[in-house]
Specification:
Number of helices: 13
Largest sheet: 6 strands, antiparallel
CATH class of the largest domain: Alpha Beta
Structural class: alpha+beta
CATH topology of the largest domain: Phosphatase 2c, domain 1
Radius of gyration: 47 Å
CATH architecture of the largest domain: 4-Layer Sandwich
Distance between the termini: 50 Å
Strand order of the largest sheet: 1-2-11-10-7-8
Shape: elongated
Strand content: 5-15%
Oligomer: single chain
Order of helices and strands: HHHHHHHEEEEHHEEEEEEHHHHE
Number of strands: 11
Length: 514
């Protein structure tokens, strides 16, 4: 079975395949529904009409016989009990006849037979039963006895019995015919269900084959090329376009990306060599500002990244410092500017922050310590310090004029860590420490202004509200992982921005281990 359509796009293939499948399903469903409705109708006819009609016809025959016997006994004995029995049986026969006529009203042949029974019954009652009861009531017993033995009375009763027997025969014939039709319809429905099952299996097999031939196999080939290109030191394995048009276009884009990355790798290697040969101090600064390694520190899941706008030294940085009493201190800071001077300032401040946290100072006290060191400096600094203590579902922070970090909670709500004092500058200032609930499943996302001040094609900044909107649009599984949350946010913002390298960008995300 060939499922190859080289000139047809995957979207067109899926549309045609879906239309064929829907058509087959609709036709099969219509046939099954028709057979099912027929079976239900036939079953209803047998169980709701013919079977009760047969029972009532038999009861009617017995009731008329009981009426005749009770009248004859009443004429012989003249007892009131026998008369009441005759009248009760007569009333029962009348009710049974009315019920029988309602049940067979939808079948013309049975309706004719029921009318014959009703006619003979009425004749018997009018000409024989009622006059006889009247004679007995008025004391004319001899006349009543003569009427019981009269040939006309016997003939009328025999006509009732014969008509009732014929009705029972007709009902049984109709019931037998209905059962035959029911068996035929059931067999037809069974065959249709078997055909539907075979058809479903066939459609499932075709779907699996189409999925493998149109999507999985081409994707496997692209993935193999990508793995080989990533594994080789030179990354020179080309990524060949394959499969349907859409997958082939993805392969072409991946090949273009591979080539662009190769150019960037070459340029980076050249710059690295030049940097190490010509500016060893810059390399030393870069190593000094390297963030701590490891995704988990002191029971806290931490992810951070810094993207320098110029060269390899940024004025932004983040850090994680184990606290004396257990727990973790997190820092993110932004020095004004994004040149070497800003990087040198960042190195000094990073050391001050680490020293304060290692000494067990509160977040606001660390800000005071850093502010004292800025009294002779010219660059402005925004900073955010968060303390995540052990054994407490709280987050303590001090915010020196930094963009308010966001707390993405496990229940889907988003809060923020607002400012607790002015930015760090030669003018000094005062800061305080705030607290907020911070339990398992909550993630704090901190960032520098390069992220939220990025511009789109209309020249509009992303802003805090835009960042919140991006986070709200992410899947819950992404919002539950610090690394995934940070990377997805950076990717969405970078896709929106028209100029990505205008400023240093640092993003820090952390949360308690669950």
């Amino acid at each position: 079975m060939s499922l190859s359509f080289p000139s047809m796009s995957l979207r067109r293939r899926a549309t045609i395949f879906s239309l064929i499948t829907i058509t087959i399903v609709v036709m099969t469903s219509a046939a099954l529904t028709r057979d099912f409705v027929d079976e239900v109708d036939r079953q209803s006819l047998i169980t709701d009409r013919l079977e009760p009609a047969a029972q009532i016809a038999g009861s009617l025959q017995a009731a008329t016989a009981q009426t005749s016997a009770a009248i004859a006994q009443y004429v012989v004995t003249g007892e009131g009990d026998e008369r009441r029995l005759a009248e009760t049986s007569l009333a029962e026969s009348t009710n049974l006849l009315a019920s029988l006529e309602r049940l067979v009203s939808s079948d013309p042949a049975l309706q004719v037979s029921a009318r014959v029974v009703a006619g003979t019954f009425e004749t018997w009652v009018t000409e024989d039963v009622m006059p006889l009861l009247a004679d007995m009531a008025e004391g004319r017993k001899s006349a009543a006895e003569a009427m019981v033995d009269a040939p006309s009375a016997n003939r009328h009763f025999a006509e009732i019995d014969s008509a009732n027997t014929q009705l029972i025969t007709h009902i049984e014939a109709a019931r037998t015919e209905g059962l035959t039709d029911l068996r035929r319809i059931t067999q037809s429905l069974g065959l249709a269900l078997i055909a539907a099952a075979i058809l479903a299996i066939g459609l499932s097999a075709c779907t699996i084959l189409a999925l493998r031939a149109w999507i999985l196999d081409p994707l496997d080939r692209v993935r193999a090329d990508l793995r080989q290109a990533a594994a080789l030191p030179t990354h020179e394995t080309p990524i060949a376009p394959t499969g349907a048009q859409e997958i082939a276009e993805v392969a072409k884009d991946a090949e273009a990306l591979r080539r662009a990355l190769l150019r960037e790798i070459d340029a980076a290697q050249a710059a690295r060599v030049a940097l190490e040969h010509g500016a060893p101090a810059v390399v030393a600064l870069e190593r000094e500002m390297a963030p701590p390694s490891g995704a988990h520190l002191a029971g806290i899941n931490v992810f951070g990244t810094t993207r320098a706008a110029q060269g390899v030294i940024a004025g932004d940085w983040w850090d994680a410092v184990p606290l004396l009493g257990g727990g973790l201190g997190l820092i993110i800071a932004d020095v004004s500017g994004h040149d070497l001077h800003a990087g040198i300032t960042a190195v000094g401040l990073r050391s001050v922050f680490r020293t304060g946290l290692l000494a067990g100072l509160r977040a606001d006290q660390v800000m005071d310590l850093a502010a004292n060191g800025r009294r002779t400096g010219g660059l402005l600094v925004t900073a955010f310090i968060a303390l995540v203590p052990v054994g407490s579902d709280t987050l303590e922070w001090a915010n020196a004029g930094h963009h308010p970090p966001l707390i993405v909670r496990g229940d889907g709500t988003i809060g923020s860590c607002g400012s607790t004092g002015q930015l760090l500058s030669p003018l000094g200032g005062q800061w305080r420490t705030d607290q907020a609930p911070f339990g398992p499943g909550d993630i704090c996302l901190a960032f520098t202004d390069g992220l939220v001040e990025s511009l789109d094609e209309r020249g509009e900044e992303l802003g805090q509200h835009g960042l919140v909107s991006i986070i709200e649009g992410l899947a819950p599984s992404v919002r539950a992982d610090p690394a995934e949350l940070a990377e997805c946010v950076i990717g969405r913002v970078r896709l929106r921005a028209t100029e990505w390298n205008a400023d240093d960008i640092t993003v820090l995300a952390f949360g308690r281990d669950t």
